[in-house]
Amino acid sequence: MSPIISPSELKRLPTENLVLLDARVGKDVYRNYLDKHIKGARFIDLDKDLAEIGENAAFGGRHPLPAIKKFAQKLSELGISEKSHIVIYDDKNGANAAARVWWMLKAFGLEKVQVLDGGFQNAEKQNVEFSSGEEAFEKSDLIKHENWLLSISTLEEVENELINGNSTVIDVRDAYRYKGESEPIDLVAGHIPGAINIPFSENLDENGNFLAPEILREKYVKLLEGKPENLIIHCGSGVTACHTILALHHAGFRIPSLYVGSWSEWSRREGKEIAKEI
User: Fold this and answer.
1) 145 versus 263: which is more confidently predicted?
2) Catalytic annotation, pick one of 50, 235, 247, 258
3) Is 242 a catalytic site residue?
4) How many Å apart are CA 252 and CA 151, to the nearest integer?
C-alpha cells in the first residue's frame, strides 16, 4: 500500500473500517474542524495527542513523543483498531501533523495508514464531501504495545553517529533556518554540525502534491551519493521531519530514523556546538 493517497482514490475507498483523521494545527483549530472537515473525519491534536510537552525543551524538544500507552488509549477513543484503514490530512500538504500521525501509527504497528496528497485544500479542489460539527463513532478495543517499532534517535546517538561518520543526518527545515540567517520558532538560529540540509518542501511539486516516487528516488539518490546509507531525519521539533520520512518511504527507501528532539532540543542543550553558514 502506498503511503500517499489522492482525493480521487479516497472517494473510491469502501467505508467499512475507514477512519479519517483531521490533523490540522494552529489557532482555533478545533473550531475550524467543527466548522468544516472531510465528512466522517475525527479530530486529533498535535500538542495533546501526538506529543507529551514537557517543561524543558532541552530534554526532548518541543514535541516529544507521548508514552505509547497514552497514545494507545487515544487510538481506542478514536475508534481505531488493527483492522482500520486510516487516512490522515492537514492543511500544510501533509507536512505538519498529518505526517507525524502517519509515522506514529506506523511506529505503533498499524499497517493500513495513508496521508492525503495535497491535504485539506486538495480535497476541496477535488470535490471530496465535507461536513461540520461533531462526528459520531464508537470506541475500539485497546491495542497494547510496549514500544515504538520504528527507529528513533536520541541527541547522544545523533552526536555519536556524526562523530563516527556512520550516518547521514538530514535537517529538513527551510534553508534560511539551517544557515542561521534567522529563527522564527526556536531560541537560536543555525544547525547541527555535520547535518546536511534538504528542505521538506522539495518533496512537493508546484501544486503542493508529493513528487512521484521515481522522481523522489532519483532526487535522493543523487543528493545522498557518497554519503553513509544510514539516515537520521530531523527538523525543528520532530514533526515536519516525518514529511521527509514519508517521502523517502514513498520513494522506496527503508524508513529512516527520526530524531524526535530535533533542533529544538539540540539548540537548547548546554554545551552543544551550533553551526552557521552566513
Assistant:
1) 263
2) 235
3) no
4) 17
pLDDT at 53: 95
188 backbone φψ class: left, alpha, beta (φ>0; ψ -120 to 50): beta
> 0.85 cut: is pTM over it?
yes
Between 97-108 and 241-250, two packed helices, what is the crossing angle to 10 degrees?
Answer: 60
Q: Could you tell me the sign of the dihedral formed by the alpha carbons of 18, 21, 22, 24, in that order?
A: negative
**The CATH classification of domain 152-266, taken from the options 3.40.50.1000, 3.30.450.20, 3.40.190.10, 3.40.250.10:** 3.40.250.10
* pLDDT, tens digit (0-9, with 9 covering 90-100), for 147-174: 999 999 999 999 999 999 999 999 999 9
Bridge-based pairing of strands 130-131 and 167-171 is: unpaired
CATH architecture for residues 4-131: 3-Layer(aba) Sandwich (3.40)
Q: How many CB atoms lie within 10 A of CB 59?
A: 13
Domain residue ranges in the chain:
4-131, 152-266
pLDDT > 80? residue 247: yes
